Amino acid sequence: MELSRRELLKIGLFSTAALALPAERVARTQLAIDNRLPQSALPAPFTIPFATPPVLAPAGRVGDTDYYNLVQQQRPVEIIPGLQTEIWGYNGITPGPTVVTAKGRKVVMRQICSLPDVHPQLRYNVWTSTHLHGSASLPQYDGYASDVTTPGSFKDYRYPNTQDARTLWYHDHGVHITAENAYMGLAAQYIMHDPHELLLPIPHGPYDLPLILKDAMFAQDGQLVIDDNSESGIFGDVILVNGRPWPLMQVEPRKYRFRVLNASVARSYDLSLDSGEPLTVIGTDGGLMPHPVPCDHVRIGMAERYEVVIDFSAYSPGQRVVMRNASPDNNRDFDTTNVVMAFQVGDHVSSLAFNEIPEDLNPNMGTMGLTPADAVRTRRLRFERGNSQWQINDSTWEDVVNSDYTFSIANPGVNDVEIWELENRSGGWFHPVHIHLVDFKILDRNGQPPEPYEQGPKDVAYVGENETVRVIMRFEHQQGRYMIHCHNLTHEDHDMMTQFQVGPVGRGDDPNDPIDGDPCKDLRDITDLVPRLPEDNSGPGSNSSGSGSSGAGVSVPNVPAAAPQQPRVLGSIKKSVPKKKKRKIKVKAKKRKVKAKKKVKAKRRTPRRRSSGRR
Ligand SMILES: [Cu+2]
Question: What pTM was computed for the model?
Answer without folding.
Answer: 0.86
